[in-house]
Amino acid sequence: MGIPRTGRRIPRPLAPMLAAALFALTACGGGSSPATGGSAAPAEKIKLTVGLFGDFGFKPLYEEFRKTHPNIEIEERQAAYADHHTNLAAHLATGAGAADVEGIEVGFVSQFTAQPDRFQDLRQYGLDKRQGDYLDWKWQQGVAPNGAVVGLGTDIGGLAMCYRTDLFKKAGLPTGRDEVSALWPTWDGYIETGKKFSAASPAGTKFFDSPGEIMRAIIAQAPVGVYDAQDKVVVATNPDVKRAWDLSVRMIQEGLSAKIGAWTPEWNTGFAKGSFATIICPAWMTAYIQDQAKNAAGKWDIATVPGGAGNAGGTHLTVPKQSKHPKEAAELVDFLTSADSQAAVFKAIGNFPSIPALYDQPDIRDFTKDFFNGAPVGKIYSDAAKNLKPQHLGPKEGDVRTAIGNGLGRVEQGKQAPEQAWAQVLKDVENVG
Amino acid sequence: MRSRPKHPLAYLTLLAVAFFSAFPVYWSVIVASHDNAAMAEMPPPLLPGGNFLANVSRVFDTAPFALALVNSFVVAGTITVSVTFFSTLAGFAFAKLRFRGRGALLLLTVVTMMVPTQLGIIPLYMLMIKLEWTGKLYAVIVPALVNAFGVFFMTQYLGRALPTELLEAGRIDGCGTWRLFRHIVVPAARPAAAVLGMLTFMTAWNDYFWPLVVLTPDDPTVQVALSQLASGYVRDFTLGLTGTAVATLPLVLVFVLLGKQIIGGIMQGAVKG
Amino acid sequence: MPVAHRAPKPESPPRARPAAPSSPWRHRLDRTVSPYAYVAPFFLLFAAFGVFPLIYTAWVSLHDWNLLSSANPFVGLDNYGRLFSDGYFWNAAFNTLSIGVLSAVPQLALALVLAHLLNRPLRAQTLFRITLLLPNVTSVVAVVVIFSQLFGRDFGLVNALLDLVGIDRVYWQADVASSHVAIAIMIMWRWTGYNALIYLAAMQAVPREIYEAATIDGASAARQLWSVTIPMIRPTVIFTVIVTTIGSMQIIAEPLLFGAQVSNGAATTGGTDRQFQTLALYLYEKGFRSFEFGYASAAAWVMFLLVVVVVGFNYLLVRRMRGGLDV
Question: Chains that contact B by 3+ CB pairs under 8 Å?
Answer without folding.
Answer: A, C
